[in-house]
Amino acid sequence: MSRKPTMEDVKNLAGVSISTVSRVINGTRKVSPDKTEAVNKAIAKLGYKPNELARSLVMKRSNTLGIILDDIGYSYMAQYLRGIDEIGKMYKYDILLYSTFGSFEIQKKAVDFLSSKQVEGIIVISEKINNEILYLIKEHDIPYMLLDTFYSPDEFKTVSIDFKKAMSDMTEYMIDNGHENIAYLREKTAFHSSESKESGYIESTEKHKLDNWVFGVNEDTVEAGYKFLEKNYNKLKKNDITAIIAESDNLAVGLMHYCYDNNINIPEDFSISGFGNSDISELIKPSLTTVRLPYYDIGAIAVRVLVKILRDKEEFNESINLNHEIMKRETIKKIK
């Protein structure tokens, strides 16, 4: 036939009712084997293709997941997304992506848009999502996963790493290389990840009976790291600081830029480490010692958990922490 076949055509060829055809296609109720076979043969002969939108409304399934994220331009968010997309496809889910650039108004629009598209679940990737957005998702009765470094895993069950342990391991690595006067540079923020990382640094220095040298800057930027060292270089040298642990690669790269501009040798004059294993950390010279976070794996496991919640109705009762890795490169010198 020249026109597209319909359910009516399938019904007539199979010799069954339209409701039987619908039940076979959507699997909503059991149908006898002989009628199921007749319908499937009619579908194959006619080349009938079900209307997926109508089918999703009947089954309450769209096989689509929504992703709300701040900005795909952030390298680590793109890595999260790769893991989500690849594993989502493995489970036969399509992905709808909505970038919000951190705007509360755009975040609200994102939730409304994804709800209108009948997404089965939402993964939120943000540096600090507004609580009202999470309540809005709940109002739409959409299961969700939150990947956000602001909140504690005790508040929202998530997939992440143990930030305290990761920074403790980096501090231990500095100490193992003979450094006893180690400064710590962090952004002044209430982020759970920032507070946890500082706790890891303090725990390790206190364990070895070393002094704590914690400094704060207003932004997590390369410029902030640069200006910090510009302002505090003499103070650090006066107190025999031999190493600086930065809570991010951005701050560490800023420290390195200042050293380069002022003929301060790394790691001879200062050993420096970062956190995050950003693309530039391996490209900059000398290459930056840092902590690698498994962003792809976090995204992949987050989507697996969400699929289990959707398909198997499993409860997600405990946050999952994945392993980090110390990337031992060229910015730390062994001094003993």
From TrEMBL:
It holds the Pfam family LacI. Keywords: DNA-binding, Transcription, Transcription regulation. Residues 5-59 form the HTH lacI-type domain. Transmembrane segments: none annotated. The keyword Transcription regulation applies. SMART domains: HTH_LACI. GO terms for molecular function: DNA-binding transcription factor activity; transcription cis-regulatory region binding. PROSITE patterns: HTH_LACI_2. The keyword Transcription applies. This is LacI family transcriptional regulator.
